[in-house]
Amino acid sequence: MITVLCIDDEADIRQLIVEELTDAGFATLEAANGQEGLEAILSYWPDIVICDISMPVMDGHQLLAEIQMNHAELFNIPFILLSALTDKDNVLTGLRAGAADYLTKPIDFDLLLAKLAGCIARLENDRAVGRAL
Amino acid sequence: MRREKAVHMQQNIRITSHVTIVLTLLTALTVMLLAGFMWLASAKVDDLALIRQKGYVEQGLDEQVKAVQHELESVTVWNDAVLLVAKDDHPWIADNIGTWMHKYFSHDRTYLFNERDELVFAMRDGEDITALTFLDDERAAAALREDIRAMLHKRIAVGDSNSPVLAEIFAEKILSIAGRPAVVSARPVVPSSDQVSLDAGKEFIVVAVRFLDASAVEKIARYARIETLHFTADAAESTAAIPVIATDGSTLGYMAWQPIRPGLMLIEQIAPVGFAGIIVAMGVVIFLGRGLRKTTLDLSESRLALMRHRDQLEESVRLRTAEIERQREELDRLLAQERHVNALQRQFVTMASHEFRTPLAIIDAAAQRLSRTKTNQTPEYVEEKSAQIRAAVLRMVDLMESILSAGRLETGKTTLKPERLSLAEIIESCCARQMDVRKSHRIHRDLSHLPQTILADRTTIEQVFTNLLSNAVKYAPQAPDIHIRTSTKNGMSYVSIQDAGIGMDAEDLPKLFQPYYRARSATGIAGTGIGLNLVKQIVDLHGGSISVESVLGRGTTFTVALPNKGPLANLIKRAA
């Protein structure tokens, strides 16, 4: 079963996403900010991370930068940034920092699920290649 | 600076004065030199004139001496006539020799001796004195008769035809007669014209005397053109004089006169004009000096005025430059402020967009969930989703309301409607709503120290506490305890709201109530930056105040003070 970590400071949004993902057959983890998210990643090693940008304590960009600099072993975990910030600067910053994709709020669950499916396909391909090697 | 200029001017004037003095002295010196030259020249002229005068007087004297002889000769050429008459008529000789010689030649005395040396005729000062006594002094004159006789005898003895003819024989002397200088001249008078040399020793002899101190002086004076000429025994030193020397070498007296000094006379004549000229020259020099001084004074004044003007100009330029600089700085400041406001507004737009999108996302997601889970929908599930949607809508309404309120406050369109209300009641309802939305936090409140009612505008006061409470919750995500404390003092109600949240840096505190400003510690936390500005404006409109204390990482306390008797009348008016 694929485990998805959902990091968002808005409890309602977090809950709605988790509900949708659960219905779609994913195992889910929740975190309220970047700091909690990092701890969850290190503890549970999720397959995919869905992450908000504007959050207290540690925001999405900071979390990505932290992983890029200090936790290189986590870098192959796909990050899908999901934010209410729609400006190009934030999109570019996120993608350059290694995010697999950038989705904007309001959330289109079909789109989100499609993105997750794409990520999973790539992951499974990678794992198959890894086993073959 | 100004004193230097005064000193400079004084120096100028002093120099000008010196120039005037030097010019005056030079003029005086020139005049004195000219006068000296003139004096020397006149003395020289006078000396030459005196020499010439002496020459004339000497010549005149000589003429007078010689004239006697010539005159006697001119009388005695009438030899025949004289002698003929002399034989027959004695008085006629007297008339011819005596009277004529006296009248026409001014001979003072005349004596005629015959061949026996007997005095046949004598005249003294025009008087016939033949019969009178022959004076002693007259004997001196008569002595010349002896000289003539000696010469005649000598001629006869020689018998030489080359010897002088009778007409050439004469004797002449200058001597003193009766104490007076006189020319005495003697000639032989032949008895017959045809017996010139036959009757030697038979000649008559005539002796003539002319005093040099009488009419002769006048003649010399006329000749020499010296009016003051006179004879004097002793010549005074001050007067010019030539001596009258007797034949025997003794000095008989002097021909003296007041010397004529043409140079001195010239100086005397031109002296007044000269003095006048000097005075005029000095006057001109002094006048010019005064003019120069005045001009210098004027120039100095002008230059001082010019310097003052220049100073004033410099001063005004400096002031204008300072003013322009000040205006430039003011413009720079305003521009910087404008840029800052623009940046804050851009930030606000981004923030507002984010803030609206978040509740929209909740609404949208909840709606999607409701539509996607048709199969196993329970009434509780639908209830939960609709609650989420409503909360999100409420959040959007609050957000919109606060933005609109801020806009209204900014444009001054807010009207307070003060009414009697219970502050405790309002705070209670705000807390209830907040805890309904955010179940994670607990609000500990002590509202017992508030008055029963205060006079305030309900809507805006609700906004104040909603904002402050939502802030306390929002900025203290890890600290669930919020404390509200109240007190009343001096007619004011105090409400302080304390959280133990992230707090903020002391540097952020002064700017905290500016529109769109957000403390740096608020990064990543949803917010528009208009809430606290709105709160402060509302509290200010009520005549109250708001203060903040905060320690980074330890929490923040806001304290609102509101007047119990409501906003002051003028504040209501201002808001209206």
From TrEMBL, chain A:
Keyword annotations of the record: DNA-binding, Phosphoprotein, Transcription, Transcription regulation, Two-component regulatory system
Residues found modified as 4-aspartylphosphate: D52
UniProt xrefs under Pfam families: Response_reg
Cellular component aspect of the GO annotation: cytosol; protein-DNA complex
InterPro entries reported for this sequence: CheY-like_superfamily, Sig_transdc_resp-reg_receiver, WalR-like
Record keyword Transcription present: yes
Keyword hit for DNA-binding: yes
Domain Response regulatory: 3-120
GO term, biological process aspect, one: regulation of DNA-templated transcription
Domain of life, per lineage: Bacteria
Record protein name field: Response regulator
UniProt GO molecular function: phosphorelay response regulator activity; transcription cis-regulatory region binding
